[in-house]
Design a protein that fits this description.
FAD/NAD(P)-binding domain, about 30% strand, 3 domains, seven-stranded mixed sheet, binds flavin-adenine dinucleotide, Enolase-like, domain 1, alpha/beta
Amino acid sequence: MHAIVILGTGLAGYTLARELRKLDQDRELILITQDDGAFYSKPMLSNALAKDKTAAALVQQSAEQMAETLNAKVVTRTTVDSIDLDARRVISGEKTWKYDQLVFAVGASQITLPIAGDGARDVVSVNTLEDYAVFRKKLSTCNRVAVMGPGLIGCEFANDLANAGIEVDVIGPDNHPLQHLMPEPAGRALQHALGELQVNWHLQDTVSEVCKKEDGYLLRLKSGNSVDADLVLSAAGLRPNTSLAAQAGIETGRGIVTDNALATSSGGVFALGDCAEIDGLVLPYVLPIMHAARTLAQTLSGNAAILKLPAMPVGVKTPAHPIVVSPAAPGSEGEWQCETQEDGGQLALFNSPDGILLGFALTGAIAVKQKMPLQKQLPPVLA
Ligand SMILES: Cc1cc2nc3c(=O)[nH]c(=O)nc-3n(C[C@H](O)[C@H](O)[C@H](O)COP(=O)(O)OP(=O)(O)OC[C@H]3O[C@@H](n4cnc5c(N)ncnc54)[C@H](O)[C@@H]3O)c2cc1C
């Protein structure tokens, strides 16, 4: 019998390996990653600055330590460039690895916005520990940062930068912050709270050009306005990494398509984490990954299992105005009902036409306390 090969050593790859080792200590296990294989908590990348954490301080275990703990081979700095499904081989340049079962845990990549100007190539994004190290280095000489993208990650960075004493401009086409997760009154509550921290908002607008200046950058916006910045951070969203799977002939859609057992269209090949589209759902968050890893570990150790997902609210790391969201399933019919709280926060409930709670957005310290009772009323994400 050949090895189980896992592509990727992010939360998905390493959590799967850990769960697998709880069930099977002996099976040959190989993890391959294009980075240095260090284990770190990715959610900390957007709140590490105000805590003055360096990239090195965020490393919980090195690749060598992980290999020992997991009784696995961890192959680092190696980009897998093709898969031979018939021969069950993973290929990187001249090197190959045989597998019996293969798992894609290759994550997602930052979407690059089409921006003109001689400074466009200097725009940074933070989706890996190595990105964070670059970001920290550049920030050491910055007083003003422009963040492109008023979504979850953009708002978390805006809050973290503002807490670290940096002036922030957030720019994006949306009508209000976190537009894809919350109704307008909830977004406005966050906008107001971050505004009090010297975050400047440029909503319903986009950056068309980033030009170098002697001391930083000039951002020209579609509206005709402009913004000065020492650094430009893009938080325009992530796209699942599907090209390796697609090239091999595995079905892909928004992500690498799997059924509710995490199985792809090719026998013995599975996917989980930010790269996967599980039963039609792309769920790029920690909790779905933990559930998926436990389920897939059972299957890989010989006990075929089906993924079930309860409602999994996500905490948004904006301490200026704490938020918990639990979005309704995509395409759900219903409408938002919002109630303003004493502290200016919003208790926003998304109900179906027949009054069933399908999702919520809780903003501010008072509303956030309702998370547990409301979570219990929500339908499961995957039954
Ligand atoms: C700034 C930030 C803050 C976040 N905060 C939260 C939060 O508060 N709560 C929450 O629930 N979620 C949060 N998330 C989301 C969560 O962190 C991710 O869903 C999760 O970490 C993704 O893990 P992953 O293993 O799927 O992908 P990744 O961590 O991206 O790992 C992908 C792995 O694949 C490897 N790889 C890719 N291509 C290849 C190749 N061709 N060959 C070899 N190796 C390859 C990479 O090197 C890497 O090891 C946040 C995300 C970000 C970016």
